[in-house]
Amino acid sequence: MADTTNPADRSSPQGRAKRSRIKEGSPYPLGANWDGLGVNFALFSAHATKVELCLFDDDGVNEIERIELPEYTDEIWHGYLPDARPGTIYGYRVHGPYEPTAGHRFNPNKLLIDPYAKGLVGSITWNPALFGYQMETGDDLTFDDRDSAPFTRRSRVIDPAFTWGRDRKPHVPWEKTIFYETHVKGFTKLHPAVPEKLRGTYAGLGTPAVLDYIKSLGVTSVELLPVHAFVQDDYLQEKDLVNYWGYNTISFFTPARRYAAVPDFAFSEFKEMVARMHGAGLEVILDVVYNHTAEGNEKGPTLSYKGVDNASYYRLMPKEPRYYINDTGTGNTFNLSHPRVLQLVTDSLRYWATEMRVDGFRFDLATILGREPHGFDEGGGFLDTCRQDPVLNGVKLIAEPWDCGPGGYQVGGFPPGWAEWNDRFRDDVRGYWRGDEGMLPDLAARLTGSADKFNKRGRKPWASVNFLTAHDGFTLNDTVSYNEKHNLANGEDNRDGHSHNLSNNYGAEGPTDDPEIRAVRLRQMRNMLATLFLSRGTPMLLAGDEFARTQNGNNNAYCQDNEISWLDWEAVGPEERDLAEFTQRLTLLREALPILTRGRFLTGAYDEEFGVKDVTWLRPDGGEMSPENWTQGDARAIAVLLDGRAQASGIHQRGGDATLLLLYNAYHDLVSFTLPESVGGVGWTRLLDTNLPDSQDVVSKPIGATYEVTGRSMLMFVLKPEEVEGVEASDGERSYQHVMQAFERANVNSVRFETEQR
Questions:
Q1: pTM for this structure?
Q2: Is there a domain that residue 356 lies in?
Q3: Catalytic residue among 400, 545, 546, 643
Q4: I need a surface site. Which of 122, 370, 491, 723 has the fewest CB within 10 A?
Q5: Does residue 5 surpass a pLDDT of 50?
Q6: CB 423 within 8 Å of CB 500
Q7: What's residue 203's pLDDT?
Q8: Is residue 269 part of a domain?
Q9: Of 156, 174, 196, which one is at a domain's C-terminal end?
């Protein structure tokens, strides 16, 4: 075992603890917390033998003092410093055995970030001194005695005070939620209406022009890619690239300084952004990464958790604890089976939900969070904790339900109360509109909330987060513009990123001036957007898809902090603006059609009492689909009748919503559809035709009429009810009028693009 005694303890004045100033303090709360008189420092480490608090000058450059934490209670080292204040810059040096073969990697030569730090200063400069072993040897069993302090970040005590004023969380009901995924920097970096000094920042996202635009689209909840403080990858910097997405967290309580107009006040700037979004009626959802950290595997740096208590914070190989379990594909896996690690994660979530007032979380590689030593368990400690926690029970929880480990794909496997990204929706909708054979059964499942995945334990259709694209993969425009990925800019000879894109370029790879190709691409984008917003489940729109943003075929832009990833507002021309207006039309119609957001899965069963089916699947000729029709591989056209008279909730009574008819034609040529009969209706009023996106005319067709549906297009009709003079309007009539009012609003409203600063 290596001798981990720091020479500074014996020889330097910084190493001599000034015990007259340090008090015993309290083991709770963890972290560095100012009480108005001083700061209590508390750090969990089950296997440490000594913990030193290192204080720095006001610039955070020079270490001016080391103070040994005097008390050790329930595996928590703690002390109280009466003269510490907000702004105090500090770090830890943790002593203990350096025995990698036993899972211990203590090295007091390494300055460590407080796992509960609320603020950070400085940056990480990649240097061999950051590693607990002699990095140049490649042997992690060696011990390195170089001081890492000049090359790493320091923690900072903050004053959390903030005047929220009349801020109130919007509390958007799940059935009305529409997610909008974006990146703090990328959304405003090129935005002409945002003051230049605020572009790419939290403050930039909170500017009126940005909020007006997002609100005008009709989305309700802005989902931000990771904002926790993260680390730039050394191997990317060597290629003059950066970690743009941010899935490399080092501090779970600290907002990233790089997104702040004033970095030293990132926490207050973030709060102001949240308050402004709430003021616009928008929720803030954070993409969070609790499955791994930036410390990598046994060959990675010692920045925080690895040096505080490696054997507690990480999942190690049971028989070879020198090595890390790597279910994340990033080198390590956070050990949520340990109660103190579980506490850190839930404390972090509660902090963001209460102190920072965010409205929900999307969990990266969430299967890992439900893993116990025996594998994924929907009754695992973390998932159970979230279900019973009074704070977390009241925010939106969204899982990315897969990881790289055995049995990692868990779509539909999370417990009640959770929503999940549904990649089956993405793949099946893309495959259907591309014209793949045999897609009708899968399409039907996705249109109706993916009951095959989620209809259990009282879960509702909103549990399926439906999406066409996300930050990883092609954008919507690139899905209809490229057959192959084009990732050369990532510096890996196009080897990175997957090739299963379910895309089609329709005759030319990338941009083209061919009017026919451009027309079919725009129609296919409208088809997929309409399918997204008119399906059961919770829609998620990737920012920029509404105006055909492109990444030039790059489907793995994680390292592109440049024009490849940033939204290009100057590229929005007439066609792009029209697509955004079409997207707005979809959100307005969805809001006016409660039949699309009912909390019941559709079964197609016949209700004897009401004489109605909640959903009827029809062939183009108007006849009901037979088992043989479902298995017909070359069938690419189908009609869906959603009857508003069907039972709407658990109460057995007739529904009063508008009845809808949706026509889908993925065939490349025209298909004739017969408009079916429906009880109580005299005709069908067209609300949407993706081949006529700008049509503002109210067009009604009689029952039994034939409608020629253009190749690769989709339509939606609403049943026009029979009006009886002298009789009070029925629920169905009122619902029809409500829908038509939304149709008229869609003709008048516009998306709030602004190109000049106010």
A1: 0.95
A2: no
A3: 400
A4: 723
A5: no
A6: no
A7: 98
A8: no
A9: 156
